[in-house]
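User: Here's a chain of 146 residues. Predict its fold as tokens.
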Amino acid sequence: MSVLISEVAGAGRWSQFNLKLDWVPIMFGGAASTVSQITLCSLDANGNVTDTYNQNAMYKPNSKNWAFEIPGASDLAFPGKQNRPILVVSQAINNHYPFELLMPNDTRYNSVAAFLAANRQTKAHHLARCIVPRANLPAGLFGLYI
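Assistant: Prediction complete.
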């Protein structure tokens, strides 16, 4: 099982998360054209599922990205580009994708941000992102329940 860790873009609809097409098969198990809907399960800081959200896949041909809304993000203020929110998504368990959205005031934020900076798989001028096997995450998963 793999885990996606990513900074979230800002400005405008920051609650919309975009993913490059070549990352879709890694995380969601199919070509972008075959992934039409996913179920995201939000986790609280204690690992409890707080809600589930059925998300329709949105393909953006101009940017060649696949996008979905981050549940609950639209209710939060974007903290700024210096301390972007971090989205952590685990591969599916029974087609449900557990996720956590970490804001800068979360006690786990700095350790996850440091791990992401050290393991980024994107160019420096792009948002920091990585997909790593769960087994490669540090012990305790930074206190995450993914």
